[in-house]
Structure formats: structure tokens, C-alpha cells
Design goal:
This protein has 359 residues and is an alpha/beta fold. The protein is built from 16 helices and 9 strands.
């Protein structure tokens, strides 16, 4: 059983996500967050292989091949499904190994974590080294700033207070930090808007990115019951057709996102939304933080089409291929023709994403 290095094709991911290239050091996570969705994607792998056998070496080999061919590397996300700096990392140091190899190969990395482990010397040193060459973006993930609430839904994760301290200290060291409100639970965040903005200012983040809660309907209700909140109106997580997950409706989310964006912009902080659209609210070039990295490749998403339409006018179906070809010629953008030069393991999956996106 092999964990592929590229996130699977779907109408949401293929249309809106930049961070498709993923490094997963661990297949288990001790944090046991109530809202965790990794079990839907990794159960089969965990049952059929060692829970520590991720895809780190596969990613490193792909990057080595890219470097050898003198191509621009895709930023790799560490990680998408499990915590890369949990207590397991203290023992096995697989994330540390990956970061050191990425530094040698000058491969840009986007870290996503809840952990305070990166402040320990051996991890901090490599993060600072990567930062010196603009090869790292550090996303710290929060659902709430309240420690007592976090204990209910993230029982074994570091407290929000610890995470804020971690992010602030890394920012002081020059590591570019993004505050990631994920999963965003509307009623909870609405009560913390001013505190979130003050925290973002305190940390010195580059921008705040939000991603709304997505769960199966029965789990959605269970989470709201744990939080003693009335469940909000929901809609399908998918762009088209039926899907097994639901999320808070756009009608619920838009006013919250708008108010948060307004408060952040007033304080000179950027804002973006992960895989949900609402492009009119974005104030940074991309949601993940690619713009903070040097010498990297980037794929097209609906956001690039949105910006094109704002500048040049509406795009109808007959124009899609011409617009796509024009956008593919932009600096750092890699499309199907360019992908033929990349390692097959990477290029094949990226081509599937691009074809799905164009459909």
C-alpha cells in the first residue's frame, strides 16, 4: 500500500488548491481532534502498513529529480492529514529529516501544525535556515483561542495559548507565519473576532487564512452538541452534485468572512479563504503563502481566472482554452505542456488535476 505524493483529484481540490504536493511523515495522529477527517482518507493505509511509514522518501526522490532537471520545484506541504510535529516526531524525527533534505535541495515547504515542538533547538535551527533562503511558510492552525473550548474538541493537542506563543516566537526569528483558522466554526469564531485580530497583530502574521468546518452530517451535529451550540444551516461541501460532507452555508459564512477581512485589513494584515471561493474578499496573491517563497512552480486555480475576468471582462465557455493558454505563459505557472518535463509520479497526477479543473 502506497501513499501517493499528490492529493487526489476532486472538483474542489482541482479547482481551488495550490498545495497538491504533500509530504506525510506519519499515518497516525495522537491529537484525536473531534473534527478530524484524516480517518476517511488514511484508515486503509494504517490498516495495511506501519503507521509511521509515510511518503517522505518518495517526495525527496521526486524533488531530487526536479533539481537534477533544473526545473522549478513545487512547494511541498508538510503535512495535509496528520500532525507533523506531534510526540511521534520527538521520537522518530521524520519531519526534521524531511526539512533538512528540503534545505539541501532548496525545495520550498509549507508547514501546517498545531505543535510547539518547532521551538526546540534542532527544529528551530532548520526552520531559520529555510527562512533565510525564503524556503518556508509556517502555518499555525487554530479553531478557537479559548483553551477550555479547545480541550473539548482538540483534547490532546497543545493549547491555543501555546500555539500563539510558538507562532509569535517564530515570527520574531524571521520565519513567515500564517494564522490558519481551520476548521472555522462560525458561531464560535463570531464570538472571538476581535481577539483573533488582536492575536494576528501580536504574532506578526503575513496573513490569516480560513477554512470552514466540513464533516459528515451526523458528525456535524455531534460537534455542535459538544460545543453546546445550535447547528447552523449547511450545504454540500462539493461544487457540483451530492457529496458525503457538509459545511456551513455560504449565507452563514459570508458576513463573518467579510467582517474578519475588514478588521484585518484595517490592521494591515492580509486575508484569504481556503478552497471555498469568496475571491472578492482575498487580499493576498494566494491562500497558502506561495507568494512568500522563492523560485517555485505554481498551478492555475479559479482565483487566477477570477483576477483575469476582473481585469479583462467576463469569460464565456468558448474563451476558456485561449484564456488558459494565456495564463499558462505567466511566470512560475506550470501547465500540461510544462509538466512533461517533470517526474512522472508528479506530472501524471498534476495533469489529471488540470484536466479536471478545465472541465
Amino acid at each position: 500500500m502506497r501513499l501517493v505524493p499528490v492529493i487526489n483529484v476532486s472538483n474542489i481540490i482541482s479547482s481551488m488548491c495550490y498545495s497538491l504536493f504533500r509530504a506525510e511523515p506519519y499515518l497516525i495522529c495522537p491529537y484525536k481532534c473531534v473534527y478530524c477527517y484524516r480517518r476517511w482518507y488514511l484508515n486503509e493505509f494504517v490498516q495495511n502498513s506501519s503507521p509511521l511509514r509515510g511518503n517522505i522518501n518518495a517526495i525527496i526522490n521526486i524533488v531530487k529529480c526536479i533539481v537534477k532537471r533544473r526545473l522549478k520545484p513545487y512547494p511541498a506541504r508538510l503535512s495535509t492529514l496528520t500532525e507533523p510535529f506531534s510526540t511521534l516526531e520527538s521520537m522518530y524525527k521524520l519531519s526534521l529529516y524531511f526539512l533538512k533534505e528540503a534545505f539541501k535541495l532548496k525545495c520550498p515547504i509549507i508547514v501546517n501544525t498545531k505543535s510547539s515542538l518547532p521551538l526546540e533547538k534542532i527544529w528551530l535551527n532548520i526552520l531559520e535556515n529555510l527562512s533565510h533562503y525564503s524556503l518556508i511558510v509556517f502555518q499555525i492552525s487554530l479553531s478557537t483561542l479559548k483553551d477550555d473550548i479547545a480541550r473539548k474538541i482538540e483534547p490532546h493537542a497543545p493549547t491555543p495559548k501555546n500555539r500563539v506563543t510558538t507562532a509569535a516566537k517564530l515570527s520574531e526569528k524571521g520565519v513567515p507565519v500564517i494564522l490558519r483558522l481551520s476548521p472555522l466554526i462560525p458561531k464560535m469564531v463570531l464570538n472571538e473576532l476581535d481577539e483573533i485580530v488582536d492575536t494576528a497583530v501580536h504574532i506578526g502574521v503575513e496573513h490569516v487564512v480560513v477554512e470552514a468546518l466540513g464533516l459528515q452530517p451526523n458528525e456535524f451535529k455531534r460537534l455542535y452538541s459538544i460545543l453546546k451550540l445550535n447547528a447552523e444551516e449547511t450545504e454540500s461541501y462539493s461544487l457540483v452534485g451530492e457529496y458525503r460532507l457538509v459545511k456551513p452555508s455560504r449565507k452563514v459564512l459570508f458576513p463573518i468572512y467579510s467582517e474578519l477581512q475588514r478588521k484585518l485589513v484595517k490592521n494591515g494584515i492580509g486575508f484569504a479563504i481556503c478552497k471555498e471561493g469568496f475571491f472578492s474578499l482575498h487580499t493576498v496573491p494566494d491562500c497558502c503563502g506561495f507568494y512568500l517563497l522563492r523560485n517555485h512552480a505554481k498551478r492555475l486555480t479559479l482565483y487566477e481566472y477570477y483576477k483575469y475576468a476582473l481585469e479583462k471582462g467576463p469569460i464565456d465557455a468558448a474563451m476558456i482554452n485561449n484564456v488558459h493558454n494565456e495564463l499558462c505563459r505567466k511566470e512560475n505557472i506550470v501547465c500540461i505542456d510544462d509538466l512533461r518535463r517533470y517526474p512522472k509520479t508528479l506530472s501524471k497526477q498534476f495533469r489529471y488535476h488540470e484536466k479536471g479543473f478545465l472541465r
